Amino acid sequence: MGNAAEKKLPRIEINARLCKGCSICVDFCPTNVLEMRGTTAAVKDLAACTRCQLCDLRCPDFAIQVFD
Amino acid sequence: MADKKKKFMQGNEACVEGALYAGCMFYAGYPITPSTEIAEGMSVRLPKIGGKFIQMEDEIGGIAAALGGSLTGLKSLTATSGPGFSLKQECIGYACLAEIPLVIVNVMRGGPSTGYPTGPSQADIMQAKWGTHGDHPAISITPAYVQEILTETVRAFNLAEKYRTPVVVLYDEIVGHMREPIVIPEKGELEVIDRVKPDCKPEDYFPYDDKYEIPPLAPFGKGYRFHVTGLNHKKDGFPTNDSKIIEENNLRIMRKVENHKDDIWKNDEFMLGDAEVAVFSIGSTARSARFAVKQAREAGIKAGLLRPLTIWPFPDKAVTELSKKVKAIIVPEMNLGQMALEVQRVSKKAEVAGIHRVDGEPINPAQIFEQIKRFK
Amino acid sequence: MSSPTGGVVKKEKVSVPFDYNKYLRPNKLPHIWCPGCGHGIVLKAMLRAIHNAGLNKDNVCVISGIGCSSRTPGYVDFNTLHTLHGRALSFATGVKFANPKLKVIVVTGDGDALAIGGNHFIHTCRRNIDLTVLVFTNATYGMTGGQYSPTTPIGSQATTSRYGNIEPPFDACEMAKASGASFVARGTAYHTLELEKTIQEALEHKGTSVVDIIDACPTYFGRMNKFKGASQMMEEIEKDKTVSVKQVDKLPPEKVQGKMLRGVLHKVDRPEYCEQYETLVMEKAKAK
Ligand SMILES: Cc1ncc(C[n+]2csc(CCOP(=O)(O)OP(=O)(O)O)c2C)c(N)n1
Ligand code: SF4
Ligand code: SF4
Ligand code: SF4
Ligand SMILES: [Mg+2]
């Protein structure tokens, strides 16, 4: 219980309207947080996210952002 | 005092005076005979008054930079001849569609190709209208005297700024290099028109707002942050594939000229009142024609001259009217019939006879007089 | 895929994503670019750099030619000008020279800048006029469907080089430097944070600043040359075929061979065109 409160999870917003399914974010996430579901990126393992922002930085389509 | 303003100068120098009188503050171009004196003159004069002169690496760069200058709000000029005019064509179309005011001077030399660089011609008349691809509005001004190059260059700027469109000033090498005494007009003597700028809030601004016939044009850098493109666009300037909007915008830019022909047309008439034979001519050829008309009158022939100072839009109203009154319209021109074809198109009754020359020699009065005599 | 580089990984630090909407025009997304097209990644780096440089939107003018990359101005909330194929630099020269207070950024493709606009490129650098020129080098003519461009490697497939390209590619940086640009750099879409910093440095430099940006056209160059997708291209071209100037001296020669240098490659103080005009030409003209 106390553990979970300490380790606040980030919020990953994926805009399905803008995501074109290139999988760049999935392929380059250092901790395998993301996966492709059909033609859209999706979160698979939120707890593993380090908030490094690489997915956002390399997404060509303004479709993914990671909030603290 | 009056003498002080009297000057002896060349046509191309008068073009510089006209541009500066009109408030031109930006010149970009590439040297080419027989227009180079315009660039040289602008390079001396502009920096004195805070204006900008740049010699670009080619004529395309010249007109493109001039369009860039115009978009910041400065009245802009580029000048060239034959081959350079060919290079500028894509940018002229851009200026038509993006509705950017600009004056382009083409001092006509012999063609095609490199042709006869130091020889005169009037063979770019059709190119001035049809040189760039696609249907587009066209305004071309055709002065024939050194003084007139000055005043007509001012008029060219006025039309460009008023109708937000490129305007071509066309004159042949003979007028460009001819020296004549002229009078530099005092400030305020000639009308100078400035472009209409928006006064609305930036968020309400549409650079191609169809509620105006000629929408105001904001200068870059004054808070309006709008988009300009050579793609077919909506009123907000952004590209569109909507066929209705594309057509409406294409028609609107044509209407800017079409609906204001009476304002754009300008003709000089000489002894046309009772004329039975008319001559229709521009530039140096019109000067010969005027002489021939006088000769004809002395010989008892009722001849007259219609000299358009606006060749595009074509002065069809004046020519049609004239063709109902005279037996023949003689069209001397230093090309193989570019204007004669247009005169023919709009003539109702009169016979149309061309005099054409493409050997780099001027058409002399005797040649025109001979033709006039045929129709007496 | 492999480890993240190019990104400074700020562990344990509160991370706030960049608010791109501040610089994007409303309702223009999604953009026209294909899935995985590198142009979108470069656009984002450019917006962050503009933000970091603290530029006022009203004073920024973004100018492009024609091509996929040249569609950039339509999306960004500045004074924007989408011109003709190859002519962006000439229009930009006019805008900057006419109003030197504007910060003028040219966004251009490798074809736009180096083929049809190659002569303007050389002369812009020679004048050292204060423009920031971002060349989106995707080794192809994307917009017209994947013909070979002046940066297509020898042997590559394109729709006009079905038997393998035989034309040696240009090095835009070498050309810019030789022509007189006072700031020359290279970046990639893969090294996106490094690119952001490079563009910012280019924006803060006075004079012609050229940034050659290697990015991917997965649709044409990628497919025709048997890449599985954008990520593989970013990995194998942008990451594996480049090396940072900061590391190059520390690496054994075999790790540098055949690789393009990334980072700021050339930076000198040289008189800027508009200033020269004002201080030399205008002053002399007025005195006369
Ligand atoms: C005068 C002219 N010639 C040719 C074209 C066709 N054309 C449009 S874009 C383009 C190439 C674009 O390549 P590049 O500049 O590398 O941009 P990319 O699409 O690869 O981003 C060509 C040949 C044109 N629009 N205008
Ligand atoms: S922020 Fe980093 S760790 Fe988290 S999902 Fe994005 S790339 Fe993966
Ligand atoms: S990088 Fe962006 S567009 Fe590509 S899959 Fe991820 S979220 Fe979608
Ligand atoms: S064709 Fe190539 S360059 Fe053009 S948008 Fe698609 S991926 Fe990008
Ligand atoms: Mg390209």
Describe this structure in words.
The complex is a heterotrimer of chains A (68), B (376) and C (288). Chain A has 68 residues and is α+β, with helices and mostly antiparallel strands. Chain A has a single domain (12-67), classed as 2-Layer Sandwich (Alpha-Beta Plaits). Chain A has helices at 2-6, 24-28, 54-58, and strands at 11-14, 34-37, 40-43, 64-67. In chain A, the strands form two sheets. Chain A has a two-stranded antiparallel ribbon. The longest helix of chain A is centred in the first third of the chain and has 5 residues, at 2-6. In chain B, strands 2, 3, 4, 5, 6, 7, 8 and 14 form an eight-stranded mixed β-sheet that branches. Chain B has a five-stranded mixed β-sheet with strand order 11-13-12-15-16, sandwiched between helices. In chain B, α11 links the parallel β12 (277-280) and β13. Chain B is globular. Chain B has 14 helices and 16 strands. Chain B folds into two domains: 1-264, Rossmann fold, CATH 3.40.50.970; 268-373, Rossmann fold. In chain B, α1 (11-22) packs across α2 (36-45) and α1 packs parallel to α7 (146-163). Chain C has 288 residues and is α/β, with parallel strands linked by helices. Chain C has a single domain (20-287), classed as Thiamin diphosphate (ThDP)-binding fold, Pyr/PP domains (Rossmann fold), CATH 3.40.50.970. Chain C contains eleven helices and eight strands. In chain C, strands 2-1-3-4-6-5-8-7 form an eight-stranded mixed β-sheet, with helices on both faces. In chain C, α1 crosses α6. Chain C is globular, with a radius of gyration of 19 Å. The termini of chain C are far apart. The interface between B and C is large, with 46 and 41 residues. The structure holds thiamine diphosphate, iron/sulfur cluster (3 copies) and magnesium ion.
Chart the SSEs and their pairings.
The complex is a heterotrimer of chains A (68), B (376) and C (288).
Chain A: H1 2-6, E1 11-14, H2 24-28, E2 34-37, E3 40-43, H3 54-58, E4 64-67
Antiparallel strand pairs in A: 1-4, 2-3
Chain B: E1 6-10, H1 11-22, E2 24-29, H2 36-45, E3 52-55, H3 59-71, E4 75-80, H4 82-87, H5 89-98, E5 102-110, E6 116-120, H6 125-130, E7 139-141, H7 146-163, E8 166-172, H8 173-177, E9 179-183, E10 227-229, H9 243-258, H10 261-264, E11 267-270, E12 277-280, H11 283-298, E13 303-308, E14 310-312, H12 316-325, E15 328-333, H13 338-346, E16 351-356, H14 365-374
Parallel strand pairs in B: 2-3, 2-4, 4-5, 5-8, 7-8, 12-13, 12-15, 15-16
Antiparallel strand pairs in B: 1-9, 5-6, 7-14, 11-13
Helix pairs in contact in B: 1-2, 1-7, 3-5, 11-14
Chain C: H1 38-52, E1 60-64, E2 79-82, H2 88-98, E3 103-109, H3 110-116, H4 118-127, E4 131-137, H5 172-179, E5 183-188, H6 192-204, E6 209-214, H7 218-224, H8 230-239, E7 242-244, H9 245-248, H10 253-256, E8 260-267, H11 273-287
Parallel strand pairs in C: 1-2, 1-3, 3-4, 4-6, 5-6, 7-8
Antiparallel strand pairs in C: 5-8
Helix pairs in contact in C: 1-6, 3-4, 4-5
The structure holds thiamine diphosphate (TPP), iron/sulfur cluster (3 copies) and magnesium ion (MG).
Thiamine diphosphate is lined by residues 66-69, 85, 109-112, 136, 138, 140-144, 149 of chain C.
